[in-house]
Amino acid sequence: MAYHSSFDKSKFRVGNMALLPIRTRYSGPAPNETSNENEDIIDEAIKYFRANIFFRNYDIKNDADRTLIYLTLYITECLRRLQKCQSRTQAQKELTALSISTFPIPGDSDFPLNGMFSKPTHDEVDKMKQYLEQLRKECSDRMVDRVIDPETDKPSKWWLCFVRRRFMDKSLLNIGSL
To answer: For 104, which of 76, 108, 146, 159 could close a Cys bridge (C-beta 3.0–4.6 Å)?
Structure first.
């Protein structure tokens, strides 16, 4: 059984995706989580990644699960980029570029999960783009901290072994564009 998000009581939504508080230094529509003790959705996605990556099917129990799914797929893309990096500085540059690159949102024809995500209303499109970009930037920073070994300054093999796995047999990016 897959791990689901514990943030099942979220008050805010954009489309049918939960707009959850995160600890971040990036501006965006997500409320700022001020406590360092509480786990946010990005911590949860990183924690559950290695278990959830093996699932081809994932039952969505709440809107926060959609955020978890998106982050899990984004972490996979981060790992693909990190496998080519030879230093922490290079890893930061690669993931920063990935986080701000053009990406599809739910409702776009090239978004891989349109069956699970509803298209945001006309008023929510910009908010959705900003929220996903905010999640991507913060997740990229945390992945560099988590995956790059401080002693060797190289990516950890215990993370890179998941590069070839595809969560739900999906990918956020076209594999050929990497």
So the answer is: 108
Contact between residue 39 and residue 47 where contact means Cβ atoms under 8 Å apart: yes
Question: Could you list the mean pLDDT of each consecutive 10-residue stretch along the chain, which spans 178 residues?
Answer: 87 93 95 88 96 93 95 96 96 97 93 92 95 97 96 95 90 61
Helix (H) or strand (E) holding 18: strand 17-18
Q: In 3-state terms, what secondary structure has residue 13?
A: strand
Over its C-alpha atoms, the chain yields an Rg (Å, rounded) of 15
Amino acid sitting at position 167 = F
H helices, E strands: number in the chain: 5, 2
Choose among 18, 34, 41: nearest CA to 9. 18
pLDDT computed for residue 9 by the predictor: 84
